[in-house]
Structures are given as C-alpha cells and as structure tokens.
Amino acid sequence: MDKVNDKLLIKVRGWIDDEDFSKLVSIARYLGRNGRYSYFKLDLDVINSKSLNVDDVVDILESTGAEYSEDLIEYLKSSIKGREVILSYDGSNIIARFNFYLGSLMGKLRDVLTYRRELRAFIAKPFKYKELLSRLKGLDLNIRDETGFKLNNPLGYDVRFTGLLRDYQEEALRAWKLNNYRGIIALPTGSGKTVIAIAALASLSQRTLIVAYTKEQLHQWRNSILKFTNIPEYLIGMYYSEEKRLSPVTLTTYQTAYRYVDKFAKLYTLLIVDEVHHLPADKFKFIAEMLPAPYRLGLSATPYREDGKHTELFPLMGGVVYYKSPSELAKQGYLAEYKIVTLKVNLKPDELRTLNKLRRRYRELVGYARFEDVLEAARRGDEKAIEALRLHNSMNLIIHKSRSKVEKAKEIIERELSRGSKIIVFAHYVDLAKQIAKETNAYLLTGDVPADKRKYILNEFKKAKSGVLVVTTLGDEGLDIPDANIGVLVAGTGSRRQFIQRLGRLLRPANGKVAVLYEIVTKGTVEELQSKRRKDVKLDDIM
Q1: Tens digit of pLDDT for each residue in 144-157?
Q2: Three-class DSSP category at 116
Q3: Which of 95, 129, 331, 444 has the smallest number of Cβ neighbours within 10 A?
Q4: Comparing C-alpha atoms, which of 347, 343, 345, 323 is closest to residue 516?
C-alpha cells in the first residue's frame, strides 16, 4: 500500500485514537493499516458537499499528525470548490446565494443582507454593494460576482483639474477623501461647492453620474466641468427630457434619475448629488439606494430637514464630512459681509378679524392639540381634523400674504432702488409674487415660466446694474445672480435650509459689498417664531 502513488493519499504513523480517526474519516476514506502506518484517501466529493475549504482540510490533517505529499495543497486548491456565494442582480436587488448554511456567520452579514423566503436567498440594496463584498471577502469565501457592478470604472482619460481651490475647499476635499471618498459637503450658496465636486471628479477619474434638481443646473454643471478641467465636451452627456446621451460623465435631473436608475446602475462608480437635501424624499431616495456606486459626494447649503429625514442621508451618502457657515466664510473674506434685518408689520384690521374668526373655529374643532397630532388624525380620515387643517392653511395664507407685507416690501424696494441696489424678492406664493412684481414693475420668475423665457429673464436681470427680480420657491432653485446685494423675504417657512439658501444668493463677494436680507414678518403670529427658528442654522446637532 505504501507504493500507492496518489496525490490524495495520506498516512498517519502509529496508533490513531478515536477522536482523530473520526476527524479523518469526515474527509477521507479509510484504506487500512500497513506496518506502522494507517492509510486514508481524501474524498473530494465529501469535502465539497460539506463546503469545506483548503484551510479546513489542512487543519484536520495537521491536528491528527497526518503525512501527505508536497503537492497535495496545490492540488486541493484546484479541486475543492469550498464555501461559495453567488451574487446576481435582478434589476432591483443584489441576490446572494450560498452553497452552505451560514449559521453563526450570519451575524457578520445581518446589517447588509436580508433573507427572502420566497427566493430562498438573501438580498441587499445595490448601494450596499461595496460593503457586502468587503464582508464576504473577510469570511474567506469563494465569490462568484455576476452582478455586472464595478468597484472601479475609470474614465479612460487623463483628467486634470485646471482651477485653484481656496483653503476651505481643499479642506473639504481632503475630509471627503479621508472618509473613503464618501460624504456630504455643507457650504453656503456662493462658496464654490460645484468646484470642489469637479476637483473630486478629476482626482478620482471615475465614470461619474451627476444628479441636479433643474435642467438649468445641469447646464451650469457642464459649463463648470469644461471650465475647470481638461475633459472634452464629447465625454460629457446630458440625460433628461428629449436629450438622452450616456457618456463617461453624465448629468441628469432627480426626476430622470428616478425613472431610469436601472440604466445607470452598471455604468458609474462616482455619484455626485447636488442639493442633496432633496434626496431623502421617498421617491428620490430610490436613486441612491439603487445605484451601487462606491464613491459618493453630496452637496448642500445645509442638509438639515425639518422633517428629520436628513438622518437618512448618512447611510446613503456617508454623513456630513465638512461644514462652514455663511458668517465663517464672510469673516474670512470669501463671502460678502451681510446683515439680516427683521421688520414687523401688523395685519390689516379686516385680516385680523378674519384670522381670529378662523382661529376660534379651529379651537372648537381640535382644542389645543399639537399640530402633529391633528395632522396624524387627518391622515386617519378624522373629519374634524381634516377641516381643522383647511382652517390652519387659510390662517397661514392670511398671515403670509397680508397687504401690510406687500406695502412694506414696496417701501424697501423703492428705497433700495434709489441707492442703485440689485434686489431679489422671495415671495413663496405665485399670486403674491405676481402682485409684487406688477406693483413694482419687476422681473418675475415662477416654476411655470417656460425655459426659454426663464433664460431671457435671467440674462436681462444679470445685465442690469440695478433692478428687481421676484421669485417663488420653485423660481429660485439654482438662481445665480452674483451682483445681487439685497434680498426681501416676504413670505416663506421656518426652514433653516431654505433661509441659508436664500441668504446665499446675496453673498457673492465684491469690493465693499455688504449684503442685506430683509425679512418681513407679521407681528403676534406664528411668523415671529418661524423667523427665530430659521435663523438657528447650526449643524452641530446633526453632524
């Protein structure tokens, strides 16, 4: 028997106790004893059926004192299938199928995988792709990756960043890199977030998908990429509405990215999301969840959301890695100095009478219940709560659209125009914006202004040395008027994010420039509380 020449043959000298014998026959067939040796032959079918790997087999051989040929290990490496996981992609989820029972190993995968009984397999959202691979490799498994996803997908072009970063921009870029090329950079409007993102794109040189909120912003992004890098225009594609061209660097809107996320999933390894505070909305969150891109950069004046959903950004994008307030950058000279002037006005007598009447009816319906509780009751179909919400909305409209506010806005506009100022009026409501624009002979931008007319209005206002532009919430998305120095907030919300964005529209630096944001609030109403709340802009509690 000692003449048997077989790579799978092993032998043990001397007497074998029951425990060692049991270990050996779990992986080999006993051939018998000859002289001083007991002979066994490794059984590959048994080893593979138990999903053992080479290390498992060698551990048994070493612990029992078995002797084997020098080339056995290499032969085993080529013959043992071992513990294996097959990853596939069904268009929505990563599917993970294991050829062995996970047992205690599931504890190391629980937060990235979920078991689906109907599939008899595990699933993970594509955004967890990199983390899933890392965990599986740590378990020393054979991984068959059939997803088509990539951890690296180079642009295939020698990209150079041709701009210059300010010191805080370099700090922000460095913080993002140190966070494994993931995270949110929160900087005020006008501080150059786009330039930082383009420097990040050039640094990584990966195929990139950029998601912005409006079509106008997509064109601004393309122009900035061409300005600050050597990337040729033919490598930059626009994917929205009627223009749909996939390129190594592709720019798309939130709405389009949501509809066509499956087309982007296997193509891009760097995801840049502008105005990332929009992402936690149920519809748009889908974009970040369905893309496997391992490198992610979010940009926002502040990612804070009043509904608390900003916390959902962190697992999707990597958390806030860098933040500077408008006042910090203004002190350093990177943004214009600014003042915030709060002006209080009284409701007109008839407005106050109507408001008090509505308020009494509201109390009759829900008493002094918290608004959140009234809202929840309305969602459940409570008729009193539904009527109370209608009354609440009517009260807010009286407060926000008071004629006193319009008169005060006109007064400010006339005074500032006499000084040669360039003024942006934030009116929130379309009818209020139209009224102010009509009474002050101002340019008007609302969400329903056609793209060509919008472009014309913006160009005309940019060319003017002095003038007035009235905008609604949708109208001021992506607004870029560098020399505007006066803002008038006529109606808005308590949103800190929105307040910072609107202040930021005025902060482009210029010699001797001191920007002023006037906010007009109705005295003795909820607007006074909203005014206080929206000026509390610290992010320390969410970072």
Answers
A1: 999 999 999 999 99
A2: strand
A3: 331
A4: 343
